[in-house]
Amino acid sequence: MLEHKLFKGKTLAILSGGGDTPAINSSIESVRNRASMLGYKVYGIRQGWKGLLGDGDIIDLTRQPYNGLYGGTALRSSRTNPFPSKKNPEDRIPQILQNLKRYKIDVLVTIGGDDTNGAAKRLYEQEGIPVIGFPKTIDNDLRTKTWHTFGETTVDAVVCPGFPTAAKRIAEFASILKTTAESHSRIMVMEVMGRDAGWLTGAGIFGGGTLSLVPEIEMNKERKDFFLERVKEAYLSNPKKTLIIPVSEGVRWYDDLTGKTDVVFASTEQDEYGHARLGGVSGIISSEISNKLKIDARAQVTGYYPRGGTCSEYDRRLTQTLADKVVDLLLREEYGQMPTLNKLCKYTDLEEFNCSSIDMGAIGNRSLPMEYFDANTFTFTPAYNDFLSKIIGHPCTPEFNYDFPIVVPEM
Ligand code: F6P
Question: What pTM was computed for the model?
Answer without folding.
Answer: 0.97
